[in-house]
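User: Quick sanity check before I run a bigger batch. Here is a single chain. Can you write out its predicted 3D structure?
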Amino acid sequence: MKTRSLGLTNIQITPLLMGTWQAGKRMWVGIEDEESIKAIRAAFEAGITTVDTAEVYGEGHSEQIVAKALSDVRDRVVYASKVFANHLKYDLVIEACDRSLKNLNTDYIDLYQIHWPSGSFNTENVPIEETMSALNKLKEQGKIRAIGVSNFSGDQLAEASQYGRIESLQPPYSLFWRQVETDAMPYCIENNISLLAYSPLAQGLLTGKFGKDHKFAEGDHRAKNKLFNGENYQRAQNAIAQLRPIAERHHCILAQLSLAWLIAQPQTNAIVGARHAEQASDNAKATEVVLSPEEIQEIDKIGRQVTDYLDNNPVMWDF
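Assistant: Done. Predicted structure follows.
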């Protein structure tokens, strides 16, 4: 799989990243460690050599699963992890990074990201200058190679950039969720900041596998996803029906088509999770789907049938 530079660094990432929120188990149902390990390994074998995790995914469990899957090929993979909003004071950032290094069984993390802005989820407000100071220190020490942020607005990204080089922004971004395009994306393009899109399949909605009356099992956080509720869900079903003929034209599945559209956007890469090895292998084939400029426009128009009705709140869930 052809790689791309992360921001202005010499770190080479794949346009598809293996997402491992589900490997942490918390807020998911029906996840088995052995299956998660096989899925991460299958992604690697299919050419996806960049993996994204976070300390909050199962309180370190996801990071430990990543280590079990990839420690023997550590020199051939790129690890991205995140510090949560409750650990943004200077000393807590350092401690969180050390825990993640231990969980990941490595002596460096390629990309270390602020998971949510300070104050999110009723956490203490910490000046971004303090958090960035800790991240810059970790970079000097060689414990991390690059700094990124996640769920930051364009204004928050610009403020953080005053205190150190930010190489990536991780926003929710898919054909059905596109607020970043009018907020932070122009700043990212201007400053060579990579976009690492999470929920690139709108949490599975863009696979087309959910019927019009689907109900999630108790404990599945997707039940609170705005796209899976009310008129948003019906509009999404109509859009999916229009996407199917384009996928058939390319002899690919809907998920591959949606990912191909996303990684064709400026500076955009997609973090895509998988429960099973087969899913991971299928996802990787999205890089083989080549869309014409006309098809990219056609898909864009279909997606807007969903996104034009959403508000400007960038958070996908009604938690």
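Strands lie at 4-5, 12-13, 16-19, 50-52, 78-83, 109-114, 144-150, 168-170, 194-197, 268-273.

User: Great, the batch can go ahead then.
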